[in-house]
Design brief:
By secondary structure, the protein is α+β, with helices and mostly antiparallel strands. The protein has 3 helices and 5 strands; from the N terminus they run ααβββββα. It has one domain. The chain is globular and about 40 Å long. 25% of the residues are buried.
């Protein structure tokens, strides 16, 4: 048996992988979340000029696990801010749709979400093992992200 191999152009293989994920890669979203949480984690005591505490390691880890579980490469980025008491808040808004996740300094999470009609559909403590709530939240976040992408395709400019 004889094999013929054709090259369809010059060899241009670069053995070094790209360090920057594509904008639709799930890693693009998780890199944003990770970078933002690292940024908050290094805040100093009194970062607000008063007595605000930086987010605790427990709060940051819990928020990272939740956000990377809920989102993927199609998910719009949340606004992520410290709460001043050692916790972290992540929030998405699109019209009347709103999703807010709060993680306190001990790593306990709570969530409030409204749907496209502005009705509250989730308002409760959120455990990482609450599969039904996580599934519902993932679905609401996908709907919100679709709405944002359709109405504002350049939404990423807000997060530079």
């Amino acid at each position: 048996m004889e094999w013929i191999i054709r090259l369809s152009g010059p060899k241009t293989h670069d053995p070094r992988p790209s360090r920057k994920p594509s904008r639709t890669s799930p890693f693009f979203y998780s890199r944003y979340v990770s970078a933002k949480l690292r940024e908050l984690r290094i805040l100093a005591e009194g970062w607000d000029g008063e007595a605000a505490r930086p987010p605790t390691q427990e709060a940051v880890h819990c928020m990272y696990r939740l956000l990377t579980r809920l989102g993927d490469g199609r998910t719009v980025f949340p606004f992520i801010v410290p709460d001043g008491t050692g916790g972290v808040v992540a929030e998405w808004r699109a019209g009347v749709r709103r999703i807010e996740i709060e993680v306190d300094c001990d790593g306990q999470a709570a969530c409030c979400a409204t749907d496209g009609a502005g009705e509250t559909v989730i308002d409760k403590d959120l455990g990482e093992q609450d599969e039904q709530d996580i599934g519902r939240l993932t679905s609401l976040l996908a709907e919100l992200s679709t709405e944002v992408r359709e109405k504002n395709p350049s939404w990423r400019r807000l997060f530079r």
